[in-house]
Amino acid sequence: MVQKADSIWFDGKLVPWDKAQVHVLTHTLHYGVGVFEGIRCYTCSNGESAVFRLPEHVERLFHSAKINEMAIPFTQEEICAAIIDTLKANKLSEGYIRPLAFIGAGVMGVNPADNPIQIIIATWPWGAYLGAEALEKGIRVKTSTFTRHHVNVMMTKSKTAGNYVNSVLAKREALADGYNEALMLDVDGYVCEATGENIFIVRNGIIKTPPLGSILSGITRESIMLLAEDLGYTVVEDRFTRDELYCADEAFFTGTAAEVTPIREVDRRVIGAGSRGPVTKAVQEAYFKVLRGDNPKYGKWLARYSL
């Protein structure tokens, strides 16, 4: 359950959590054209707090809105400032941030015409998305019967609310079958991504991840690629199949929510030793070092604030 906070930022002002309401004829509620971001903030080693890659997340929010022909009535700088203000108002030193831009009430039908574009920012405490134990022991994954979107069917470079029906169906299927997460294939049958995470595999010390075709350009994905190269690993973007994944030495998911989560099993095939491998562990530790403010090289990735 989402833990209730004091306030939600709504169209330019902080309002009480229970007062952040919309009409039942809100256009996005009916047609799914809304865009959002998932962002995290962490408590750093020095006691400060920091939002990870805040400008990049807000920029992607605006790109998603542009793709969907939604004009957000605030600047990127104003949204960045509003996120920090909301965190401070809720006295949240560590947790999750959800900005959402949506089309408000007005006309109905698939053409929203001049309905207002509204935006909210909610924050709440949130631990490991797939479970704290999963960060060490890894998770079990099932290849979904649902295929990921084609690039000319849905706009795959936007975090559009309606796109995630695909993810919800795949996730529920995997959970019902006793797995922790679903693996999505693209329309050509190649490994694509998970319901809300990017995927990496490791074979003979080389790290591979699918290229930016139908997958979302993950901010954590990009961060992990840079950190892995810092550690001396070769990172390549290339398509790969399910059977190549089955035979990988290691595999892991990345994402704002999932952070760096090892994969120990796919479709009943044990991956590598069936636990977090040495490359995954090294990358994971490097990532958390950045999040805690302990790697000065990537200090620019942290938008620091104090309560």
Question: What topology emerges from the helices and strands here?
Answer:
Blueprint: E1 7-10, E2 13-16, H1 27-31, E3 34-36, E4 39-43, E5 49-52, H2 54-67, H3 76-89, E6 95-103, E7 117-124, H4 134-137, E8 139-143, H5 165-176, E9 181-185, E10 191-194, E11 198-203, E12 206-209, H6 219-230, E13 234-237, H7 242-246, E14 250-255, E15 259-266, E16 269-270, H8 278-291, E17 302-305
Helix pairs in contact: 2-3, 6-8
General description of the model:
The protein has 307 residues and is an alpha+beta fold. Helices cover 26% and strands 28% of the residues. The strands form 2 sheets. Strands 8, 9, 10, 11, 12, 13, 14, 15 and 16 form a 9-stranded mixed sheet that branches. Strands 1, 2, 3, 4, 5, 6, 7 and 17 form an 8-stranded antiparallel sheet that branches. Helix 2 packs across helix 3 and helix 6 (219-230) crosses helix 8. The model has no long low-confidence stretch (mean pLDDT 96).
